[in-house]
Sequence to fold (345 residues):
Amino acid sequence: MTVDSNPPLLHHFEKLLRHPDEISTLKRHDCHQQSGIMMEECQLPLIDLIGLNSHDERERAASAEAMCRASSEWGFFQVVNHGISPELLKKMRKEQELLFKTPFERKATCGLLNNSYRWGTPTATCPKQFSWSEAFHIPLTKISDQSCYGEFTSLRLVMTEFAAAMSKLARLLARILAENLSQQGGMLDDICNESTCFLRLNRYPVCPISAEMFGLVPHTDSDFLTILYQDQVGGLQLMKDSKWVVVRPNPDALIVNIGDLFQAWSNDVYKSVEHKVMANGKMERYSVAYFLCPSYDSLIGSCTEPSTYRKFTFGEYRKQVQEDVKQTGHKVGLPRFLQVKNAQP
Fold:
């Protein structure tokens, strides 16, 4: 008897269809083509972080300037020479694959990694709200907790090292972005702690139906910034100049994107850009994301005036996002926190 590690995504997706026979009409086609339109492929701005360690002040300034420009124009960039060794990244991927090969019933019921296993989209009320994926969403405070891992002892050692390296990198990037706005770089260090930062281990199983199926529905990130380590399968897309573009994987780079909190804090200088993952009909996809978040009671206000957004706490923001998803099926995000004269009802 073969034990299936995949969650019952198709079964739950079928329940969202208005007519049971709709599933037979969903035919896969090329993943770079949606609704008959060939998707444009893009190369994200590439930042070589080795320039930050240069003895030449002009090189350091040029690296920082390129990062800030990409954060403003794209909301996304990729970094090389980031200080996280290829060996550690390979070990992380190996352990991640072993974890997700665990039988589905065990992943769903045994409380692994702080009982953080999630799959599909429980709040979905229609097909376009459904994500064809599974994930573990782990707070940094639990990553070194031996009781969270069961028999996966080697995973704990690797994840502890990986999380520390990603945290160090995230804080470095956040300091540079803050200093570019003439703010103290250490300010974000003071409000971002392990209690609210987290890692998300993602797996996108092979999807036997339409290439228009989301691996992860369109969204922006509710944090300061996100660092993504992904494989070479592809599927990540972002909104650029009012259209979706395909992000070309780079085996040597990590991807960084600006979150909602940095957009609000920078008063729209940096952009939190909508992005999504498209499911793949031939290959499974893996990624790990690190989210830099403040404590829940941290007050988020713009660093310049007049401010586009009213002040809010991170806890208030998360609560509003969750309420919107529950009531409407999608995240509204920052438009909920515009100043009263511009606020979205």
Summary: DSSP finds nine helices and 17 strands in the chain. Residues 28-33 have pLDDT under 50 and may be disordered. The radius of gyration is 20 Å.
